[in-house]
Each structure stands twice: as structure tokens, then as C-alpha cells.
Amino acid sequence: VRFADLNLRSPVLSYIKVSRCSALRCVTITSNALKKLVLQKQESLCNLSLQCHNLIDVDLSDCESLTNEICKVLSDGGGCPMLRSLILDNCESLSVVELNNSSLVNLSLAGCRSMTFLKLACPKLQVVILDGCDHLERASFCPVGLESLNLGICPKLSVLRIEAPNMSILELKGCGVLSEASINCPCLISLDASFCRQFMDDSLSQTAEACPLIEHLILSSCLSIDVRGLSSLHCLQKLALLDLSYTFLMNLKPVFDSCLQLKVLKLSACKYLSDSSLEPLYREGALPMLVELDLSYSSIGQTAIEELLACCTNLVNVNLNGCTNLHELVCGSDYCRSGDMPIDAFPPDSAPDKTKEIRESSDCQLEVLNCTGCPNIKKVVIPSTANYLNLSKINLNLSANLKEVDLKCSNLYNLNLSNCNSLEILKLDCPRLANLQLLACTMLQEDELKSALSFCGALEILNVHSCPQINTLDFGRLQAVCPTLKRIQSSLIA
User: Fold this and answer.
1) Are 298 and 273 in contact (CB under 8 A)?
2) What is the per-residue pLDDT for 291?
3) Do 180 and 201 contact (CB within 8 A), yes or no?
4) CA–CA gap between residue 229 and residue 18 (Å, rounded)
5) Among 45-54, 75-84, 155-164, 334-343, whose mean pLDDT is lowest?
6) Rg, the chain, Cα only
7) Where is coiled-coil annotated (predicted)?
8) Which of 200, 208, 453, 458 could covalently link to 482 via disulfide, CB atoms 3.0 to 4.6 Å apart?
9) What are phi and psi of 480, to 5 degrees?
10) SS3 content of the chain, % helix, strand, coil (to 5)
11) Strands 379-382 and 180-184, bridge-based pairing
């Protein structure tokens, strides 16, 4: 049927569905019984008038001629006071969407590619779908009832306002041009602003003041954040995770001064951090609750790494992947002795004593040590005197120049030395080691391996694939040394 206008008054119809009427331009419906209206794929529909007191669900998907005026019909005062669910998917003529609706719970705007401005004042809104809205530039959610929101799919978003009293998770990852953000979410727990390169100090400060319950704050690649913005972190008394990776920061003092509850600090690829930037950690006992530290691909030096491992005994997980200045890792030396420090390194009668207290307060808690792809490391030695009683996993994969590994770790469970093609010396006294990865250790001799395995009485998995010096064609010889072996991965080179 081809008709251009639909004018309907019905006291009984509760559900109306009209689809693929290509000539339909104008729809007027008056009904107190109607609860669901579906007008999908109405290519010519541009005028819609509704007086439907009990209408709950409206689906206008693929109505590509609908104009911005539809927002007035679907807002308070427009004739649908009970509206709860609204679908406007692929309405490609919508450029400005302004909805002021006190009953709306679910809203989908997927595929509205022409939309550049979005303003929602929907205090009961629980779900909003914005997939494909990749031209959105300005957005306001004030107020909304959302508990979580992902705007990372809107790469052109530059201005954002949010007032959401129930929101706990906000994802802005990838909003690379977001320069102005007002975030007022008093229950916010997690904020991911990764790759928001224009996210400014002012926006961070305002957010920290308005969202004091934030526990996870990810600012990776936020290149515009500096000391002034970090100083506002004192407002976040529950902050447990802070990610500042891939930033240009040189001064971490505001973090050390303000984030006393911090448990995880990620500084991967922070090329401008110097050894002195981290001194408060190992000389002054800063961040006493810190358990995970990521310095991967940073410019941190050999001495600072040694001192961090020796003095920060609270650390459980340390990532040093790709650290070019790491030449050897010899644990167990007392790097925290004040006599080893410059005379003016500490204020009198303060930091040395504090550092000594930290060192003596507990055994080393380190469980995981990752040094993947450290190109210049040549030697790793962890003696029993280092007291790494909790160390269970070491990863040295892709450390091409590593020649010597000497470990006496009573609780080590997993050791990855794959692609360490310079490895020649392997000494292991690890009675609980269960998984040993030696893939492509081309220089390692079979006698060296057998000697190392003789002190690994719990080994179950051994990978010696692409190790030409190791003959595993006769598995019995290795199993005789280590009877617990259950699986040997090998290229079977005779």
C-alpha cells in the first residue's frame, strides 16, 4: 500500500507496526491504549505527531528522513509522558539530538553518523547506545541515571559534560581531541582516559574534585597532563591504580605526596623520567601500599632498578620489560645502606632511618618479575640470601644478550627464558619449579641443562624446542635427571 499520510485515532490498539512504506511522510497518532509503536525503514517519514499517554516503546530505526524536530515530540511535553525505550538507529538526517525526558530508560542512537551534538537530560536513563556515532563532537549528559558509559567510540568528541549521580565506570579511551571535560559523578570508581591527548590539567582537577571516590584512574598517553593536574590527586583518597604510561612527565612528586593508598603505578614508556624521579620510592618510603610497579620501556637506570628491588620490599609485581639500561640483575645486595648514598642524599636524621625501617619491617614480597625483551641484560643472579621467598614467576623472554642465569628461589614456579639465544650458563636451585621455557636457547648445552634440572625436583613442563645443542630424542635421559617431567616440547633434533 502506498500512502503519504497516516492519521490514526484508536482507543483500543496497544501495538502498531508499519514497515517499508516508502511514500509515508507524515504520521499522527492519538491513543491512550497504545504502548508500542514500530515505524521501521520509513525512508520518507519526516513528520511525527504523537498524543499517546501510555506509549512505552518507540522504534524509528532506519527512518533516514527524520529531522531534529523529532526530539521535541519525544521529550517531555511532546505527547509521550511514559516513554521508556527509544530506538533511533541509522536515522542519518539527525545532526542535533536534544532529549529532555524524565521517563526514558533506554536510548539507542547507533549508526546516527551525522549527529555532531547530543544533549540528554534524562534522569532515569540507564542504557545509551552510540555505536557508529563517529562524528559526535559535543555531548552533554546532564542529568542521567547511567551507571556506566563508553564514549571511546566517538573519536571526534571535543567537549563533554556529565552529571550522573549513579555512574561508577566511565570509558573515554580514544577520545583523542577531547579538550574540555566537566565530569560530575560522585560515585565514579573507574575513569579510563587513555589516549585523550588533549585532556587538560583543568579537566583532571575538576574531575578529581567532583569524583572523590575514584579508585582506578588511567591517564595513559594523556600528553597534556602535567604537575598541576597531578596535584589535584590529593582529592582521591581511595585511588588504588594510577596509569601514567606514555606521558612526558618528569616530576612525580604530586603522586608521592598525595596518593598514599596507591597500590598499582604504571609508568611504562615514560621516557623523560630520570632515576631521581623515583628516589622517593626507595629512599623515603613513598607509597607504602604500592604492590605493583610497571617501568617497562622507560629510561630508568641500572642503579635505580637495583635499589627499587632491594628497598621496596612491599612490591609484589614488577615489570621491567624492554628496559635498555638494565645490564645485569644481581639481587641480594643491601642497596639501601645510607653509607652507599651521597652525603647530601637525605636530610639529617630522617630518610635513612625511614628507609632502614622499611627494609627491616618485612621480608621481600616480590612474586612476579617481568624483564621481557631487555636487550642489554647479560646476567641474572638471585641467591638464597636475597630472601625472595615469595617469588613464583620470572619472565626473561626475548632478552637476546642474556648469558648467565643463576637462581636459588625456593618457591619459583614458572621461569621463561625463551629466545635468550646467548644463554650459556644456567644454574637452578628451584625445588618447586614446574614450568621451564627454553624455546630457541640456541647456545645452551645439554650437559648444562641436565645439571640445572638436577635441582628442580618438581619440574613438569620443559620446552626446549629449537635448541640445537640439546638432544631430546631420548627423553629418558632427561627424565632420569628429573623424574617429575610430564611433558617435553622439542623439535626432536638428533
Assistant:
1) yes
2) 98
3) no
4) 54
5) 334-343
6) 31
7) none
8) 453
9) -70, -35
10) 15, 25, 60
11) unpaired
CA 394/CA 375 separation, integer angstroms: 16
With bands split at pLDDT 50, 70 and 90, how would you rate the model's confidence at 342? very low
Which set of grid coordinates corresponds to residue 138? 559535543
The amino acid at residue 13 is L
* Grid coordinates belonging to 156: 571526534
- Give per-residue pLDDT as tens, 430-450: 999 999 999 999 999 999 999
Q: How far is CA 109 from CA 23, 59, 96, 170, 197, in A?
A: 24, 11, 12, 19, 26
Contact 249, 229 (CB under 8 A): no
Is residue 142 within 8 Å of 121, Cβ to Cβ?
yes
Q: Please give the helix or strand (H or E) that residue 361 lies within, else none.
A: helix 351-361
Cis peptide upstream of residue 165 (ω within 30 degrees of 0): no
C-alpha–C-alpha distance, residues 8 and 46, integer Å: 17
> Under the phi-then-psi rule, with left for phi > 0, alpha for psi from -120 to 50, and beta for the rest, what region is 480?
alpha
Residue owning grid cell 620490599: 313
How far, in Å, CA of 339 to CA of 251, rounded? Answer: 26
pLDDT digits (tens, 9 = 90+) for 6-17: 899 988 999 999
pTM: 0.89
Cα atoms found within 13 Å of the Cα of residue 348, Cβ hemisphere only = 0
The b-or-e profile of 49-69 (16+ CB within 10 A means b, else e) is ebbbeebbbbbbbbbbebeee
Q: Which residues, in sequence order, are CB contacts of 264 under 8 Å at separation 6+?
A: 240, 241, 242, 243, 290, 291, 292, 293, 294
Give CA separation, 295 vs 52, 165, 179, 256, 321, in Å.
Answer: 60, 36, 28, 16, 7
Closest CA to 147 of 120, 185, 183, 202: 185
So what's the pLDDT on residue 478?
78
Query: Comparing C-alpha atoms, which of 428, 424, 419 is closest to residue 381?
Result: 428
Distance from C-alpha of 291 to C-alpha of 369, rounded to nearest angstrom:
12
pLDDT digits (tens, 9 = 90+) for 230-263: 999 999 999 999 999 999 999 999 999 999 999 9
- Which positions ≥6 away from 447 have C-beta within 8 Å? none
- What are the residue ranges of helices labelled H in 25-176? 70-74
Structure-block grid coordinates of residue 214: 575514584
Query: d(Cα 494, Cα 236) in Å, to the nearest integer?
Result: 62
| Four-way CATH pick for 392-494: 3.80.10.10, 2.120.10.30, 3.90.550.10, 3.30.9.10 | 3.80.10.10
Measured CA to CA, the distance from residue 156 to residue 133 in angstroms comes to 9
Residues composing the chain: 494
Only one residue has cell 549508526, namely 111
CA-to-CA separations, 464 to 220, 373, 422, 438, 467, in angstroms, rounded: 37, 19, 14, 5, 6
Q: What one-letter code names the amino acid at 230?
A: L
At 215, the pLDDT band (50, 70, 90 cuts) reads: very high
